[in-house]
Amino acid sequence: MRIAVFASDTDHSQLKKRELEKLIIEKGLTLDNQTPETVITIGGDGTLLSAFHRFVHRLDRIRFIGIHTGHLGFYTDWRDFELEELVDSLLEIVSHSVSYPLLEIKVTYCDDQEPKHFLALNECVIRRVTGTMRADVYIKDELFEQFRGDGLSVSTPTGSTAYNKSVGGAVLHPSVNALQLAEIASINNRVYRTLGSPLVIGQEEWIAIAVNELGQHMLSIDHLVMAEENVEKISYRVAQERIHFGGYRHNHFWTRVKDAFIK
Predict the structure, then answer these.
(1) Does 133 share its domain with 223?
(2) Residues forming the active site
(3) 163 is in an annotated binding site
(4) Could you list the residue range(s) of the whole structural domain that residue 79 is in?
(5) For 146-159, what is each residue's pLDDT tens digit?
(6) Any binding-site annotation on 185?
(7) 256 and 226 share a domain?
């Protein structure tokens, strides 16, 4: 088995990285940061997001395992004092994995610029840099509403517990192959009117946000932030690709939600 180990920049995470790599070698496994079969991250959800985007082109050949060195994360199942137990589990002949839906994003432009394609594990957020964002929202190519406000967020089920939740979106279980659209400070008055509540879109449908004004917009894809000029439209759908997690011990989703927000 070829294994890559990625850790956050904290001293503690880097220490645990060295300990884990030593255990991996002692157990006869192979360290490989280029073409791994298993990617282990040490830190938090941000570290796993970084590893996801690094290997986004090899998702069908990789499973991820997260070790958290701080508070419980949604993508991290192991604690930093369980390294030997984790490595022993990698040696088991029978292994399982769980998979989560991803968000497919296509950005098209008003000029001759080539469209850009992305995958997101959590969400994609679009905002106007200055002033109110004006955009038409389409569902399956049919105009649904004309949005005016700060911005729009489209999230995956696992991403529903992240920024989506903070702007009033619903929490979706990752067994639901869907994406969710949430408004960010929409303007609703006699002139402008939107639904004003989150939308859950099934895997056979898609969303398009047609920007009505040229100029600079901020596009956030997970932890990546980009300033984009001359955006014409952003299209979203449930991706064909999925992210796979090593299922040796995968915490129940609602347990994660309870531990993060209630317990």
Answers:
(1) yes
(2) 45
(3) yes
(4) 2-96+247-261
(5) 999 999 999 999 99
(6) yes
(7) no
